[in-house]
Amino acid sequence: MNVPKVSVIMPAYNHERYVGEAIESVLNQSFTDFEFIIINDGSTDDTDNVIRSYNDNRIYYYSQENKDAFNTINRGLLIAKGKYISIINSDDVYHEERLSSLVKTIEEYDACFLITNTCLIDEASVPINDPSHLSCIWLKRLLSIYKETKSLELTYLSGNLGVTTSNYFFASDVIKEVGIFSSYRYSHDYDYALRALAKYRDKFMFLEEKIHLNYRVHVENTISKSSVGVINDGFNILLNNLPNFISNGEDQAKIKIAGKSFIEMYDVLINTIDAKSIELEAIKSTWLYKIYNKLRNTFNN
To answer: What is the mean pLDDT of the chain?
Structure first.
């Protein structure tokens, strides 16, 4: 049996407008030794018909009732036969040389987990360059932290530098050692990266100079629909993973940057929501908001 070098896993859900471009970005890779596992996670639009319109012997198509992204990705991980795993969401876009470049890098440096830099795009696949755009502010902040510290640990304790599961490329052995994705609806990608980083340290690499992924920002993004859910996931993930990074003299620095990260997540969120909105009132009624205020008082004193 021919075993592919790479297994590309695509969870697909209600992206009839974008899934074709996502599929073509995989099929048009300069690197061709891959299997392409597409799992339709109970889409209710025309996603199924768009996927079925592609005829390529590297595609393995499955359909299921809606089970959320983390379960869908985990199903793909169990099916995958490749030496390396690459994930792409059904609304994102690979650059043509992504797989070729990452296979070469992971083997040259004997690495285990790779992420690249990211280009933010809108609904029409146009790059988002507006410095006042929330996503641009968020990504620029993380890139600035990395540039200043050159520490993936400190940067990841400030937020998900990888941005999305579409940016994850890793050895299949990672599944044996790190496990599968946890059941966070909004931030399973962030949790998985923190777990992998804690395990592999120097074998977890950020290719800062390579922009090999277009991440699509649009109103139908799952995280765009529930700011409260995103913050709740993020805070719990930080709490659960922080102990894995506290082991030496940098302990206080890591705790402090995690606390500041939580404050900044809330600051950005609150500053971009209309003061009279129902969502802001919902945020202020949560226990996380109370912790946010306590942390602000702690770091301001």
So the answer is: 86
Residue 211, amino acid? I
For the chain, count helices (H), then strands (E): 13, 8
Structural Rg of the chain based on CA atoms: 19
Helix/strand/coil for 160: coil
β-pairing verdict for 34-41 and 59-64: parallel
Q: Which two tokens stand for residue 54?
A: 């592609």
Q: What is the mean pLDDT of residues 63-82?
A: 96
Cα–chain-centroid distance for residue 293? 28
Paired strand residues for 93: 214
170 Cβ neighbours under 8 A, 6+ residues apart: 84, 85, 112, 113, 114, 196
225-239 burial by CB neighbour count: b if 16+ within 10 A, else e? eebbebbbbbbebbe
- Round to whole Å and give the CA distance between 93 and 184: 23
Q: Which of 199, 206, 202, 203 is nearest to 244 (CA)?
A: 199
Cβ 207 vs Cβ 117: under 8 Å: yes
Q: What is the pTM of this model?
A: 0.84
Q: For the segment 272-297, what is each residue's pLDDT rounded down to a tens digit?
A: 555 555 556 666 666 556 666 666 66
Domains and CATH numbers, the chain: 6-300 (3.90.550.10)
Number of Cβ atoms within 10 Å of the Cβ of 211? 13
- Write out pLDDT tens, residues 102-133: 999 999 999 999 999 999 999 999 999 998 88
Residue in 236, 163, 156 with CA at minimum distance from that of residue 204: 156
What's the rounded Cα separation, in Å, for the pair 22 and 37?
13
